[in-house]
Backbone:
C-alpha cells in the first residue's frame, strides 16, 4: 500500500509552523526573511525581493568612489603581534647620544687646535688640545658604559672590518685618543723645569705635541662622521633613510662645537679661525638638518614632531644665533663667549634630536610599513608600467 506524499511546499510550511510554534520569540523580521516562493501565490503582486535588515546601513561605508561599499573587513591598523613593534627599538640610552656629541666635540676641537698651531695662536691651540683630550676621554667612558664591560672595547681591536662602522670607529678612536693625549700633555711643557731630566722632557714635548696634534687633526674628520654612518647602518627607518645627510650634519656639528670652544676660551684677537669654522660648520649643519626634515617624506616626521622636533628647532635657532654673534661681536669677549656657548648648545640639541628622532621612528610600525609598501609599489611600476 502506498501513502500519498505531500508536496515539497506543503512539507516546508509545516516545518516552518512547527519552528514558529516552538520559538514564539523569534523576531518578526527573521520570520519574514524566511519566506520563499512557495508562500506567495503565483498571481500575487507582492515584492519578492528580500529586504535587508534594518541595521544594514550601519555596516555600509559611504563616500568612497562615489557610492556605498559594504564594510566586510575593519580598517587596517599599524600594529603587530601582541601589540609589540615591528622593529626592536634601539636599546641605546642617553649616554650614546652624549657619545655622539663628545666625539664630534673632540674632532672639532682638534681641528681648532691645528688651526691655532699653524697660525701661531697659542690660546686657540691650547684650548683645542685640552678640550679634545677631555672630550675623547668622555667618549670612551660613555662607550664603555654602553658596552657594559671595558674588555669588550679591547675585543673590538682583535679584528679590523672595513664593512663594519663599529669596527672602523673603534680603530679611529684608538688612533685619535693617544694623539690627542700627547698633544694635550705637550701644553704642560712650560711648567717643567729647564734643567735636569724634566728639562729634557720639557724640550721634547713641543715637537712631539705638534706632530701629535697634526695626527689628531688628520683623523678628526673620520671621527666626526663615522657616528653618522654608524646610525645609518642600522634598520631604524629615520636613520637608515637619512644616510646621505647624517655624516654631513655630524661634520657640521663637530666644526660648530669646536668653534664654540675657541670663541669661549680664546681672546677676540685669536678667534679668527674659530669664526671661520663656525660659519662652515653652521652651513653644513643647517643644510643637513633641513634635508632630513624635508627630503624623507613620512620618515621626516619624527624629526619635526615631539621632543626630537623641539630639539632640532632649538639647534637651528642656537646655531644661527651663535654664528651671528661670532660675526658681529668680533671685538667683544662677552659676545664671543655667548656665541661659543650657543654653538655648543646647538650641537648638543642637534645630536640628541637626531638620536631621539630615530628611536621614535623605530617604535611606530607606521614608519616601517608605509615606506616598505611604497618601495614595493615603485618596483612593481618599474617592472610593469602598464599596470599603473
Residues:
Amino acid at each position: 500500500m502506498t501513502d500519498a506524499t505531500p508536496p515539497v511546499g506543503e512539507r516546508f510550511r509545516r516545518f516552518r509552523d512547527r519552528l514558529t510554534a516552538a520559538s514564539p520569540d523569534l523576531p518578526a523580521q527573521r520570520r519574514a526573511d524566511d519566506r520563499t516562493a512557495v508562500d506567495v501565490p503565483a498571481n500575487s503582486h507582492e515584492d519578492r525581493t528580500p529586504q535587508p535588515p534594518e541595521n544594514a546601513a550601519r555596516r555600509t561605508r559611504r563616500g568612497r568612489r562615489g557610492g556605498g561599499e559594504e564594510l566586510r573587513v575593519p580598517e587596517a591598523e599599524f600594529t603587530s603581534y601582541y601589540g609589540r613593534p615591528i622593529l626592536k627599538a634601539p636599546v641605546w640610552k642617553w649616554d650614546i647620544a652624549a657619545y655622539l656629541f663628545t666625539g664630534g666635540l673632540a674632532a672639532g676641537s682638534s681641528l681648532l687646535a691645528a688651526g691655532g698651531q699653524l697660525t701661531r695662536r697659542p690660546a686657540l691651540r691650547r684650548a683645542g688640545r685640552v678640550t679634545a683630550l677631555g672630550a675623547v676621554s668622555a667618549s670612551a667612558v660613555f662607550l664603555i658604559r654602553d658596552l657594559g664591560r671595558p674588555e669588550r672595547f679591547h675585543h673590538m681591536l682583535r679584528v679590523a672590518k672595513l664593512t663594519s662602522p663599529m669596527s672602523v670607529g673603534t680603530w679611529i678612536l684608538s688612533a685619535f685618543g693617544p694623539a690627542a693625549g700627547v698633544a694635550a700633555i705637550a701644553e704642560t711643557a712650560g711648567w717643567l723645569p729647564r734643567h735636569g731630566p724634566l728639562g729634557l722632557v720639557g724640550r721634547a714635548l713641543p715637537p712631539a705635541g705638534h706632530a701629535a696634534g697634526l695626527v689628531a687633526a688628520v683623523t678628526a674628520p673620520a671621527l666626526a662622521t663615522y657616528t653618522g654612518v654608524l646610525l645609518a647602518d642600522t634598520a631604524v627607518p629615520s636613520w637608515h633613510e637619512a644616510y646621505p645627510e647624517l655624516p654631513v650634519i655630524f661634520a657640521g656639528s663637530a666644526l660648530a662645537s669646536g668653534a664654540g670652544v675657541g670663541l669661549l676660551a680664546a681672546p677676540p684677537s685669536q678667534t679668527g679661525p674659530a669664526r671661520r669654522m663656525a660659519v662652515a660648520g653652521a652651513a653644513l649643519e643647517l643644510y643637513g638638518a633641513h634635508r632630513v626634515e624635508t627630503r624623507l617624506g613620512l620618515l621626516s616626521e619624527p624629526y619635526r614632531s615631539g621632543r626630537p622636533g623641539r630639539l632640532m628647532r632649538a639647534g637651528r635657532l642656537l646655531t644661527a644665533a651663535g654664528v651671528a654673534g661670532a660675526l658681529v661681536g668680533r671685538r667683544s669677549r662677552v659676545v664671543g663667549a655667548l656665541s661659543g656657548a650657543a654653538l655648543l648648545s646647538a650641537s648638543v640639541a642637534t645630536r640628541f634630536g637626531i638620536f631621539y628622532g630615530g628611536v621614535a621612528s623605530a617604535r611606530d610600525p607606521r614608519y616601517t610599513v608605509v615606506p616598505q609598501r611604497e618601495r614595493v609599489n615603485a618596483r612593481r611600476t618599474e617592472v610593469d608600467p602598464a599596470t599603473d
Q: What stands out?
A: The two ends are 73 Å apart (CA to CA). The mean pLDDT is 81. The first helix runs from residue 8 to 22. The chain is about 65% helix and 0% strand.
